Amino acid sequence: MSPRRLIVVSNRGPVSYSRDADGRRVAGRGGGGLATALRGLLARHDVTWIASALSEEDRAVAEEAQGGLDEASGRLLLLAHDPVAYEGYYNVVSNPLLWFTQHYLWGLGSAPVLDARFADAWEEGYVSVNQVFADAVVVELDNDPEAAVFFHDYHLYLAPRFVRDARPGATLAHFVHIPWPQSDAWTVLPPAVREAVHDGLLANDIVGVHTDRWRRNLFASACELLGAASDGTGGIAYRGRTTTLVSRPISVACSEFEALAESPEVREAERRLEQSRPERLVLRVDRTDPSKNVVRGFLAFGLLLDRHPEWRGRAAMLALLNPSRENVAEYADYRKAIEREAAAVNERHGHDGYRPIDVRIADDFTLSVAAYRQYDVLLVNPVFDGLNLVAKEGPLVNRRDGVVVLSENAGAHDELAEWVVTVNPFDVLGQAEALHDALAMDEAERGRRSRALAEHVRSHDLEWWIGGLEELLERSSA
Hints:
Blueprint: E1 5-9, E2 15-19, E3 25-29, H1 34-44, E4 46-52, H2 56-64, E5 69-71, E6 74-79, H3 83-102, H4 116-143, E7 148-152, H5 159-166, E8 171-175, H6 191-201, E9 206-209, H7 212-226, E10 229-230, E11 235-238, E12 241-247, H8 254-261, H9 264-276, E13 280-287, H10 294-307, E14 315-322, H11 329-349, E15 357-361, H12 365-374, E16 377-380, H13 390-397, E17 403-407, H14 413-416, E18 421-423, H15 428-440, H16 443-459, H17 462-477
Parallel strand pairs: 1-4, 1-7, 4-6, 7-8, 8-9, 9-12, 13-14, 13-16, 14-15, 16-17, 17-18
Antiparallel strand pairs: 2-3, 5-6, 10-11, 11-12
Helix pairs in contact: 1-17, 3-4, 4-5, 6-7, 9-12, 10-11, 10-15, 13-16
């Protein structure tokens, strides 16, 4: 498609600001994978990126640069939200409420409890912050009505409706990077809230998700909860408009990632791992997020050692876990559960310097890439996941014909099922036996699967995903 101005809207931006030891302002890559994923799209378009000012230095930059500032990623507009509103928007509604709902994480016998705190956080936080985002988009559209707006993820479900009401002819698209659950899951939320979520999404011309499974669920829940209907061509008709729902699984920037895996920093980290690695290395790379299912993975590894004593002392698990949202109570509690279960397995099976589970909780991407090169088995067992890039990153750079054990509820499973060992994320015994099967798999089969995974990722890389997004945007403006 020909270059056109693109307004990208997300909670996190591509750049985050801080001060160095000498007090000088420095810009670093924003947290999360969205900026990396969209870099190729940004290179093709004149981009304005609207995001939240998250750090104190971000807020200072936002105050100084009212009209936005130029960065390598394009023009950046940071929004300095009211701190109380942002707390409700992010730490009460987005995380955990929407995240837990869309990942099926609630234990409904006791949670959630939607009290006055939630009602205030919804109205004064989530609705308010989405309106601030929408107002900023409207200003940009008034400067260039032909620009396309591209919203991202669960933080911004309401903003498209606010923009649509203000500028009915705008070109709007939205990509949801997390699972879309079946309609019953949404009944956790009050009717007005769940209807607003779906109504906001259907204000877009096109909505993208990673898999056809999530697309079907979104279609069904919109019909059931809003009374929307099929337009007869695969789109969904609602309030006099048609929204097209598309699936396009995100991927890895292969050449960049493979170059990183060969960098001196990664090779040095790999050298250190090789000096201490067990005969068979089982790896997991995750965040300390309840959706990642780390505790059940540890239970499964302990059960593997219980049932298959031949792996005791020979196989060990390295768990590289990035701390996640620890100011949210559910996440802080889950980290403690992770540490307790690892300690229990190590107490039961550890001896003479053998530690079955090595847990390292830190933000150390270099070490993670080094470990990708070294694993014999990669365990990716999320409860639910929109996609899960670990299942693609690992096989791309692994050099031991490693086997991937993958949850059937990870979005990536739709693509990779033919070459992985599939597990039910709730079946701990099944996961233990899957780990045994992966560890015991013959070399020829390991090699066949490993090569096929890497080839698939290379042929369906980030450029392929971006091409689909450009088609999405072209269709939304046609």
